């Protein structure tokens, strides 16, 4: 059984090497069906082959809200590196998420089914499996870790690039402003988050007239962004934005502009604030599991939080809020904010960062990985 330090080195080497679409020849990777209550779910299974004797750590990984699902490049990179560390890895496909539907309740059921299936696999080390959730999947992974029924099957939980509260993450998606320690930072937010929120919540938002046409247009923007056929702030997105806007009822175009403003324009702050309030109210009424963390009970397994400092989809301050929220409810919690990752890519090191700082970031990230893989 490899030590935690050796496993972390193997993970790091895998992360640096597995940047292409194809897995290395010594990594077994296949898609199979796993039964969960009421359905059979496709899962990607990854493990080193040929396998050595004995059992191995198990991990169930939640992908993010993306049309690419199991094939998202960053997900493949992480899970292949995790398998290279010596783990058996299972990634269930959350079908609603590949259709860009929020559906947190179904995602949680599928995750629970994956945990139960992997925990009883005779090839997996006894003592429970780890659960990892990316982005929107992070709060769902943490909620699963707080489920008393699943406690015997769990070993640890990781939330990467996640949010603490849905309202604060939503506000950032519109304003690009976030604060920590009394310091306000302004960024250019990735519009994907607000497009997803609008496409799912606007049809339910009675205060805004349930504008279905605008929701459909925003979903198309989000889908094309996820497929990487448009640059969110580039000419391709601007052309598509204009085409979608022209097809909307005139009464909905002003609302659409708040979610997808024309290049160089600034949405009315009052209109944005009204929309954000309406979406928050709608989410609380119809999809309360989007904001599960304030109501969680105690988490009895180690909690690991990781966030990229240059994240423009969900700001790193959300993980600091998450840390403060979870600290009283956990026996062991570790949080790391790093320059080495953004959100959906490796966030290559900024040229202005010196070698000394880069080395410190690398050491901190190695220590975080070693802790994560220690059990």
Spans of at least 5 consecutive residues with low confidence: 346-352
Under CATH at level 1, the class of the largest domain stands as: Alpha Beta
The overall number of domains is: 2
- CATH architecture of the largest domain, by name, is 3-Layer(aba) Sandwich
What would you note in describing this structure?
Strand 7 (177-180) and strand 8 form a beta hairpin. An 8-stranded mixed β-sheet has the order 1-2-4-3-5-6-9-10, with helices on both faces. A two-stranded antiparallel ribbon has the order 7-8. It has 375 residues and is α/β, with parallel strands linked by helices. Helix 4 packs across helix 5 (137-145) and helix 8 packs parallel to helix 10 (250-259). Residues 346-352 have low confidence and may be disordered. It folds into 2 domains: 4-165 and 291-372, 3-Layer(aba) Sandwich (Rossmann fold), CATH 3.40.50; 167-177 and 187-288, no CATH class. The chain has helices spanning 4-17, 73-84, 95-98, 104-119, 137-145, 166-175, 192-201, 212-226, 235-246, 250-259, 269-286, 317-326, 355-372, and strands spanning 27-36, 39-48, 58-62, 88-92, 129-134, 154-160, 177-180, 183-186, 303-308, 333-338. Helix content is 42%, strand content 17%.
């Amino acid at each position: 059984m490899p030590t935690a330090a050796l496993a972390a080195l193997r993970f790091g080497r895998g992360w640096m090497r597995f940047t292409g679409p194809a897995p290395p020849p010594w990594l077994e990777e296949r898609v199979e069906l796993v039964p969960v209550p009421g359905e059979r779910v496709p899962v990607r299974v990854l493990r080193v082959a040929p396998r050595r004797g004995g059992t191995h750590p198990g991990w169930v990984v939640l992908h993010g809200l993306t049309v690419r699902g199991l094939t998202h490049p960053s997900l493949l990179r992480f899970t292949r590196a995790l398998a290279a560390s010596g783990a058996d890895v299972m990634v269930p496909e959350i079908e609603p998420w590949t259709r860009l539907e929020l559906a947190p309740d179904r995602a949680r059921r599928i995750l629970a089914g994956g945990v139960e299936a992997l925990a009883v696999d005779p090839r997996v080390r006894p003592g429970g499996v780890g659960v990892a959730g990316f982005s929107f999947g992070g709060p769902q992974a943490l909620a699963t870790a707080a489920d008393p029924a699943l406690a015997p099957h769990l070993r640890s939980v990781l939330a990467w690039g996640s949010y603490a509260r849905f309202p604060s993450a939503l506000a950032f998606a519109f304003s690009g402003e976030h604060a920590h320690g009394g310091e306000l930072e302004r960024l250019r937010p990735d519009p994907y988050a607000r497009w997803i929120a609008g496409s799912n919540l606007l049809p339910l938002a009675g205060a805004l007239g349930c504008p279905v046409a605008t929701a459909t247009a925003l979903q198309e923007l989000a889908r094309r962004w996820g497929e990487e056929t448009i640059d969110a702030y580039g000419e391709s997105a601007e052309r598509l934005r204009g085409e979608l806007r022209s097809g909307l009822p005139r009464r909905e175009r002003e609302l659409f502009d708040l979610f997808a403003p024309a290049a160089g324009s600034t949405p009315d702050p009052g209109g944005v604030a009204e929309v954000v309030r309406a979406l928050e109210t709608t989410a609380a009424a119809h999809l309360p599991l989007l904001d599960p963390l304030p109501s969680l009970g105690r988490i009895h397994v180690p909690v690991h939080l990781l966030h990229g400092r240059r994240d423009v989809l969900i700001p790193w301050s959300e993980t600091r809020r998450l840390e403060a929220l979870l600290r009283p409810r956990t026996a062991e919690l570790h949080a790391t904010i790093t320059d080495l990752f953004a959100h959906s890519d490796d966030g290559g090191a900024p040229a202005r960062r010196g070698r000394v700082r880069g080395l410190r970031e690398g050491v901190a990230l190695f220590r975080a990985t070693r802790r994560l893989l220690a059990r």
